[in-house]
Amino acid sequence: MRSPPEDFWTTTLALTAPASLVLVVFAVAHQVSWLWAIVAIAATGLCTGWLVRRHLERLAQHAARLEALAKGDPPNALATSQEEGPTSPLAEAVAKLERAMPERAQPMASEAALESIVDALPYAILQLDSDERIVRANTAARALFGSDLEDKPLVAYLRDPSTLDAVAEALSGRHPEATEARLAGSVERALRVRVVPLPRPLGTAPAALVAIADVTAVQQAERMRRDFVANVSHELRTPLATLTGFIETLQGPARDDAEARKRFLGIMDAQTQRMTRIVKDLLSLSKIEELEHSPPASYADIGKTLQTTLDSLALAAKAKNTALDVHIADIMPPVRGDSDQLAQVFQNLVDNAIKYGRSGGTVRVRAAVAARLPAGFAPRAEAYVEITVADDGEGIPREHLPRLTERFYRVDAGRSRDMGGTGLGLAIVKHIVNRHRGALDIASEIGKGTIFSVYLPIAPAAAQNARATGT
Ligand code: ADP
């Protein structure tokens, strides 16, 4: 037997009580017999109970259907409106609501889908009301301007006059041109802003949509490209001008001067070699950049690669009377690396240390498992090897350090050129280290010298051994 609905007993008792009381009073006053009164009370109770139970059950069913509608669950079967009795208007209302639900749910579902799409867009999107206040903002907008944008005036975030003019234009129904704006902050951001009027159903206030693209990175890349072309042209123009000058001199005034011809040809040879070095370094840089996103698949023996490079530089060191003080740890775990590229890194760093170090000084080269990593570097491997190249030269002023790895950046351009430098060596080093998922650290003290440290991730299996043996 089903348990009675909630409130069944209290409702039945409350409804039966007055009639029962009257019958008891009549029985006490001997107007009716007690037997008759008890039978009448029982009959009233049964009938009332049956009616109460029926209506309470129906009410519970309607409540459940309304709850399902509120949750957005589609009804299994539509409620019948043919119910009779006091609950019939309620049954009719629930049936109407259930019939209307699919039509209402459709626009609601497509609006929710649209909101998710707008939220996933990489552009910051702001919906403005007629007072230029933000009504809605997507995730990208919150990332750009901060949370809690709703109900704030746009001008609190974007003060660019041309953008504000565009908003006013859009609110008066026109389609303004896209504008460029700058957003102040720890890093200034360049924005491209497009404002469009929103469709305006009859009787509603004007509204506008602002779509903002962050073009900082694009503009930066464009500027770098322009600077790079200008730098390459400048670097090649100088030796070319020298060559042209000497060719003219050799064809004209110095045509019969054997002594001058010998000297000039020597200079022309040096300039040609310089151009060749620049072109070679540029080609090698572009090749490294092409591969930068795919880390090397082979393994490299750092100790061996480093030693071979140092041997090839022994003559250059001797020419400058520089001592090479080398210490390579006995156990050097292999790294995932391209030996040729790593040789280029060591070659550029040691060559620089000899070039910019003190004449008659010492270049110290060390290689071992890294005890620690540079500050701010987020490690991606279990363990790293560290190769340091330290010289005892003049050192590099602190303000130049962050830009040293930019292409053609030199502390002293004249000195670099005189020593046959192209200004591309450290850019090559940085890109090779990046490709190896490593780190480059530069520390320098004026008057004492400079230390370049390269960190390379140890191959995973070897990293475990290195940690276990404490090397
Ligand atoms: P370059 O061909 O001019 O040597 P690099 O890219 O190798 O180009 O180096 C860029 C600049 O960094 C150099 O011109 C020089 O000013 C500075 N530099 C590099 N290594 C050292 C060093 N060991 N000591 C002092 N300055 C250095």
How does this structure look, described?
The chain is an alpha+beta fold and 471 residues long. It is built from 13 helices and twelve strands. The protein has helices spanning 8-28, 34-71, 88-120, 139-145, 161-171, 216-251, 258-291, 302-312, 314-319, 339-356, 413-418, 425-435, 460-469; strands at residues 124-128, 134-137, 179-183, 189-197, 208-214, 299-300, 323-328, 335-336, 362-369, 384-390, 439-445, 449-457. The strands form three sheets. Strands 2-1-5-4-3 form a five-stranded antiparallel sheet. Strands 7-9-10-12-11 form a five-stranded mixed sheet. Strands 6-8 form a two-stranded antiparallel ribbon. It is elongated and about 155 Å long. It starts with 7 loop residues before the first helix and ends with a helix. The model has no long low-confidence stretch (mean pLDDT 90). The structure holds adenosine-5'-diphosphate. Adenosine-5'-diphosphate is lined by residues 348, 352-353, 356, 391, 393, 396, 404, 410-412, 416, 421-427, 450.
